[in-house]
Design brief:
Helices cover 37% and strands 16% of the residues. The chain has 24 helices and 21 strands.
């Protein structure tokens, strides 16, 4: 297998448009496509399509199944989605990210000795967003009932054969799991034995979760019996979760274990339907969620890269890698300081950040022969006709304005901090993705997350609490837009993607992998657009990762999250000549046979009226088409 992988990637390095071998076949379908992080969950999508559901129904069924399987997320996490509506011919965004609870303030966390909110436990939890996001999407854009869509997940909660990845993760983290009584009850099925976690293939039963899902379906049934519409009946399930007995038990279980979430926090939270952000790259409209995610990073990078002839550089040549690395660093430096919850003051300067003039100025900072370790945030306010209100804060953080280049360069060395292995682990923190499309024209791209193992389960709900609070900052000098505050959303890494060409769906794509998500999605997109790869080739192709950014997940010490200028992760098969050239440019290289999280994607072939599905050869991601 290792030899085959090397041959495949080497072929990709010399990509020239001819057919290239892939480890997994490209998927083809003309009626529907369902792709996600687990084979059983993809099957749940296929079952839903076979019931007559549309892509939204299938996506919701896959989301429910992945949460039930603990595919690096659970029901208490968060959901971020882009949906193409064929009736309006527009892309809409769904913001179902939870918020900081009552009492979650910088003062509170600092009093407990934290520099960032914790990684694990009840104090890491925002309010649950996934149930509300799923029910909102289903009620407004699906066609089936909640009972029909949740049927696969409920059958799995009653007992499904657990795969090795999740079973081994439980065993690995059992010492943490034992700290939380409800988690211990659910996950450690063999208490006191040498292996306390389930075995691979063992039937894993979640009675409490099944009861929670059953309660939501019961609320729907009762509402229908009372003459309510389909939509109102589904939202009755929503109300039972966020305002009824499910909420009461969730809050009780959270508080018992030291959590902050209140009944009022749950009742006040709502999913939001938004306008996505977009840029046009060489005739392709690329859509991302707003700045409460890191999604605009990819849009900024594309704007910068339009100033270069990437195709002539050659796929993954030293010059190509260097140019993309620099463009990503410039974009991430802006993300790290200017992105945050758009529903809270201050207002983020997104108009300036996404302007072509600003991108051209940032592109001018790229030196063709060496890495620049002194990249800091730019000054987008100039491109909004405003004065930057954070000059003093940037100076406090250790940045000085280069008045000729309009770049805030760090005046201190940021190369210390956590080891590369620790940094890389946090950089790669995973989740799952959901991609669905149907012949009616509905397209869905979701990157859900939160409540991953080792999760704190809230009481007898069977629901793992989110850990997304760790993406807030406590110090405004790091990012004045992302300081924790009750009711506020943290700036997350989660970033589904969609692209339209000639007014029609062109690509729907997403990936897991923490801060690497928009790095890998950028490269996937360019693989298709610039180098004519199909979606499976592009999903398997060798990527690289920059470590020159602040981590969004991980340690509670500032040094754990600091950027590592010039550090780059490259594929094992990177040619020696490319390595030598990058070394001369000042790069500090590390290598692996895996350089991207699992990418899942759908390409729309309008010539033949069919779908092409791509599902990465990393991990357990799986797709089914018909």
């Amino acid at each position: 297998m290792k030899k085959l992988l090397t041959l495949t990637i080497l072929a990709a390095f010399s990509f020239s448009g001819i057919a290239q071998q892939t480890q997994k076949p490209v998927l083809h379908g003309k009626n529907w496509m369902a792709i996600t992080g687990k084979p059983l969950a993809a099957t749940a999508g296929a079952m839903t399509f076979q019931k007559g559901g549309n892509a939204v129904d299938a996506a919701c069924a896959m989301l429910a199944a992945t949460c039930t399987m603990w595919d690096v997320l659970s029901w208490g996490g968060e959901t971020q989605a882009l949906i193409y509506n064929p009736k309006t011919k527009k892309v809409i965004a769904i913001n179902a990210l939870g918020v900081a609870p009552t009492g979650a303030t910088p003062k509170f966390f600092k009093s407990k000795g934290y520099n960032f909110p914790p990684e694990y436990g009840p104090l890491a939890a925002t309010t649950p967003g996934t149930p509300g996001g799923l029910l909102y999407m289903l009620a407004n854009y699906g066609t089936l009932s909640l009972e029909q869509v949740l049927a696969p997940a409920m059958e799995m909660a009653a007992g499904y054969p657990m795969e090795a990845q999740t079973a081994n993760s439980i065993e690995k983290n059992k010492d943490l799991i034992k700290q939380w009584p409800y988690s211990k009850k659910v996950f450690l099925t063999h208490p006191g034995e040498k292996r306390e976690a389930p075995q691979a293939g063992e039937i894993f039963v979640q009675k409490d979760l099944l009861q929670t899902l059953t309660k939501m379906v019961e609320a729907e049934k009762q509402a229908l019996k009372n003459g309510k519409s389909r939509k109102d009946a589904i939202m009755a399930g929503y109300d039972r979760f966020y305002k009824g007995d499910i909420a009461e038990e969730f809050v009780r279980g959270s508080k018992e274990q030291g959590g902050l979430i209140t009944m009022q926090d749950l009742a006040n939270w709502k999913p939001i339907e938004e306008e996505p952000l977009k840029v046009n790259y060489k005739g392709v409209e690329v859509y991302k969620l707003q700045q409460w995610t890191q999604g605009p990073v990819m849009l900024q990078a594309l704007n910068i890269l339009e100033n270069f002839d990437l195709k002539s550089m050659g796929y993954n040549s030293a010059k190509y890698i260097h140019t993309l690395y620099q463009a990503m660093n410039l974009s991430f430096a802006d993300r790290d300081f200017y992105y945050g919850d758009s529903y809270f003051a201050p207002e983020e300067p997104m108009k300036g950040l996404l302007s072509e003039a600003y991108a051209k100025q940032r592109a001018g900072l790229i030196q063709s022969d060496k890495n620049n370790p002194n990249i800091g945030p730019g000054d987008p306010y100039l491109f909004e006709g405003k004065k930057n209100p954070y000059l003093k804060l940037l100076k406090k953080r250790g940045f000085e304005m280069d008045t000729t280049k309009r770049n805030f360069a760090p005046t201190h060395d940021t190369r210390n901090g956590s080891s590369l292995n620790e940094y890389q682990d946090r950089l790669w923190r995973g989740t799952t993705t959901v991609e669905a499309a149907d012949k009616e024209g509905w397209v869905v791209s979701i990157t859900p997350s939160g409540g991953w193992l080792p999760a704190t389960i809230a009481g007898n709900t069977g629901i793992g609490m989110s850990q997304r609070m760790q993406s807030f900052v406590l110090d405004p000098a790091i990012n004045p837009f992302n300081v924790v505050e009750p009711g506020k959303r943290p700036r997350v890494t989660l970033t589904p993607s969609m692209a339209l060409k000639d007014g029609k769906p062109y690509l729907s794509f997403a990936v897991q992998g923490g801060d690497t998500q928009d790095q890998n999605l950028l490269q996937f997109f360019l693989n298709v657009v610039e180098f004519d790869m199909n979606v499976q080739q592009a999903a398997e192709a060798a990527n690289f990762n920059t470590n020159q950014l602040w981590l969004s997940l991980g340690g509670t010490k500032t040094e754990d999250r600091q950027p590592k200028p010039g550090q780059i992760l490259l594929h094992d098969a990177t040619p020696e000549a490319v390595r030598n050239d990058l070394k001369k440019m000042g790069y500090i290289m590390s290598f692996d046979d895996r350089t991207s999280g699992p990418i899942n994607a759908i390409y729309f072939d309008w010539k033949y009226g069919s779908f092409w599905g791509g599902s990465s050869n990393h991990g357990e991601d799986y797709g089914i088409g018909w």
